[in-house]
Amino acid sequence: MSEKTAQMKQEFLSKLENVADMASLDALRVEYLGKNGLITGLLKEMKNLSVEEKKTFGQEVNILKNEATDAITTKIEEMKKAEIEKEINSMPDIDITAPANLDRGSYHPITLVQRECEEIFRSMGFHIEDYSEIVTDYECFEALNIPKHHPARDMQDTYYLENGQLLKSHTSAAQNAIYKKYKDALINDGVPIKAIFPGRCFRNEATDANHENTFFQMEGVMVDKNISISNLIFFMKTMLSEVFKKDVKVRLRPGFFPFVEPGFELDINCLICGGEGCPSCKHSGWLELCPCGMIHPEVLRAGGIDPEEYTGFAFGLGLTRLVMMRYGVKDIRDLNSGSLKTLSQFTDDK
Ligand code: DAH
Description:
41% of the residues lie in helices and 16% in strands. Strand 6 and strand 7 form a beta hairpin. It has 11 helices and 10 strands. The mean pLDDT is 90. It is of the alpha+beta class. The chain folds into 2 domains: 88 residues; 236 residues, BirA Bifunctional Protein, domain 2. The two termini are 69 Å apart. The structure holds 3,4-dihydroxyphenylalanine (DAH).
């Protein structure tokens, strides 16, 4: 290396060593490597050299240029690292491996039980459907064989919007849409309709320990050729034994709902009082948990399905009630209280 380049390298490196911040580093870069920089300037001195000398000197200058560029890059990295270390060292002493403060609420027990039920039905081949909370009168009543002025409407007074739509009073309001969605696959490809649709329901109720104006149900339907009450009972039993993880006493008794024929009330033994009678079970020892039945031919027809060819069952599981049984909640109003302290008792699943 010629004396000149060697000397420039020395100078550059010692200046680089003394650089203290990014701004002076950049100034140094411009001083040596910029368009009018010192290293670039060396090349201009080549014009008086012979061809042979030009070649070796050119190479030398290029090597110097590369070395200087690399040294600057390394210096930038070192400086960044030093900056981060400085920041870390200036932090107060904290143990970042200590568990975070977990006091941030928990899943609502209804969410937990709903997800559990969804998993059970998913494993049995059911679709999980979501449905709007605002529905039409047709969906909520007419398509379910409850014409205007039918007395069955009295049991489900709800909240009406000015445009004539209403807050759904039961998840059955989604049935018609589900039939229409899946009927082509059923009719053309023989795929049975198997769907559940959990959702929030509303009723204009006087509230007490067992009644709320807002509650959750989970509707389920299955439609295919030759579906019978045995299929219904099988799915209900499977679901309940999975949810309660033990054998629960159930009873099936006739029930009237205009959209099923025959219709049933599936009751479970009250798990709060063990069947002895308490306010939660209206002192009967039994709780209506899952009304169900064989889908009425008119309801299938309204969904575009020929009742001569297909039959099906439907059920309307009282999800809120199931949660109350599962966690021993005595007053339904606790579930809508929004109190984190109350809700966090039901789960340790944060
Ligand atoms: N929708 C009814 C209610 O909320 C419950 C119900 C009864 C749903 C029978 C069904 C059924 O699917 O088959 O009162």
